[in-house]
């Protein structure tokens, strides 16, 4: 069972106190809401293989079932041992991939880990299996190992190990601990220049992706031997992509030239396209080309997700501002999928905990989009980022009050009222101008309405606050409307 820092802290609090603690007490100690405490308890118990390890008693609170916790802890120690094995294999894999196609002595690869011949044999078999996923082969000769295959596949494998979800922080740090201060300064300056030339900001985790891509490029040229890539030609779709984002391609070319000078090696032209792929797969803040030049597929996927989420979240409608915002994320997301570029979401566990229901809804819609548009599988990390968009849209809806304007005919007087109301309250959303008869007939179409402003008296309670106003919307009507909106604890406070 893999727990987040918050969840481990909750167990530690219960274990140290050895008594019943209420959700309120636990929330105060942990610095979170009581709602989060209930969610954490539910998640911990659901993932436990020993049954509920946190016992709840109505009116008393929560306590830790210590016996079950000890059994679970023993299982976790076994999982930790497997985690250590994974770290070892990943480190060895990285060494082999960086030096490919050169061979490395088996003794040199495993000597520092002090493992038996049996363990070495098992590790080599697992490494071999991993490499087949990237069309790479592991060769063993004279007590040495070597990886051989296409350079593009080698880069994909390295990138997955560094950025993929299965990689632990320890592996990343182990490989990066020997990087020189000169290289760090140089790579940092490249990122800064990219941002300056494009007039953008490359935020986390995209900046880490680009940093690691350039680091991999430098290390492969220093330690390995890159086979001739001149036979790699771009297809028509890739050529069109360059035309669509010519500015980004030119910046990529300049960066690769700087890396060539830094390494004193003439890099092949395809390296410019590789970096170009990483840049267009990143979310570049305030870079408007995504919205303007997003391909038809990205627009279709964006519309599809908005429609699917609108079905389950009545408060999220197909507003243009939301679609444009989501499109600027979907466009690079689709590029990442097509180029097998992984991004790691360090907040994924917190997102799944805090927005569990929203996560399920977004994941369901995303899986449906995969089938409809024949997309590669979208990772849990990517879905986590999508969740944050729809959480944001939902919260924005809570702030923006939804008002329905009504009169006897729905014509003339209500249109005048609409103009007056919009002028007095420009921040609200006027959902519709409608007659009372049409409203009653189609009431199911008008959900999540915060207020009905009507020029006719409603004789029935429809479960929505309503206010009888004059068609000319006097100052008194304006004040009464303001009070009604404020009464809902809203935007106008």
UniProtKB/TrEMBL annotation:
A Pfam family assignment: PRD
Keyword 4Fe-4S: no
Keywords, sorted A to Z: Activator, Repeat, Transcription, Transcription regulation, Transferase
InterPro entries (alphabetical): BglG_antiterminators, HTH_11, Mga_HTH, PRD, PRD_sf, PTS_EIIB-like_sf, PTS_EIIB_2, PTS_EIIB_2/3
SUPFAM superfamilies in the cross-refs: PTS system IIB component-like, PTS-regulatory domain, PRD
PRD domain location: 178-288, 289-400
Domain named PTS EIIB type-2: residues: 401-493
PROSITE patterns reported for this sequence: PRD_2 (PS51372), PTS_EIIB_TYPE_2 (PS51099)
Keyword Glycosyltransferase: no
Name by which UniProt lists this protein: PRD domain-containing protein
Species classification: Bacteria, Bacillati, Bacillota, Bacilli, Lactobacillales
